[in-house]
Amino acid sequence: MDDKTTTLIRLGDSELTVANEAEDVRGRKVIDKDGDETGSVDGLLIDEHERKVRFLEVGSGGFLGIGKKQVLVPVDAVTRIDDDHVYIDRGREEVASGPGYDPELTPEPDRPYEDVYVHYGYLPYWGAVNGNRGTPHR
C-alpha cells in the first residue's frame, strides 16, 4: 500500500455512483457455492481513493428483518453476477459466521477490515496478512 491512508466508505454515504446502473448489485440476492440464498447485497464498501468496490455489505440471517446480521464479503468471492443475483464461492455458514459489520465503527485505516480477509482466506488488496503471500487459502 502506498503512503496514502485508505478510506473505505459505503457507496450510499458518498457522492459517487456506479458508472453503469445495470452493474449496481445492491438489492440483489447473494447465492452461495451450493446454490443456496445467503442474504442480499445491502450496500457496497468502496476504496474512496481508488474508487474501487472492496466489499459487499450482505444482510444475512434473520426473519422479516429481525435478527438480521450485516457482514462483509470481499469482492474476491464473487464468481458471477446476473440480473437478480450475485454468486459467491463461499457457503452460507461461512458468510453467516463472518465478522459482523457495523457502519458506525471505524476500522484501522492502514488495514481496513483485515479480519474479514482472514475469515475468508483472501489476501487483502493492500498485500500480505501476517507475512502470508501467494494464492488465497481456504
From TrEMBL:
<feature type="region of interest" description="Disordered">
    <location>
        <begin position="92"/>
        <end position="111"/>
    </location>
</feature>
<dbReference type="InterPro" id="IPR027275">
    <property type="entry name" value="PRC-brl_dom"/>
</dbReference>
<dbReference type="InterPro" id="IPR011033">
    <property type="entry name" value="PRC_barrel-like_sf"/>
</dbReference>
<feature type="domain" description="PRC-barrel">
    <location>
        <begin position="21"/>
        <end position="94"/>
    </location>
</feature>
<dbReference type="InterPro" id="IPR014747">
    <property type="entry name" value="Bac_photo_RC_H_C"/>
</dbReference>
<dbReference type="Pfam" id="PF05239">
    <property type="entry name" value="PRC"/>
</dbReference>
<protein>
    <submittedName>
        <fullName>PRC-barrel domain-containing protein</fullName>
    </submittedName>
</protein>
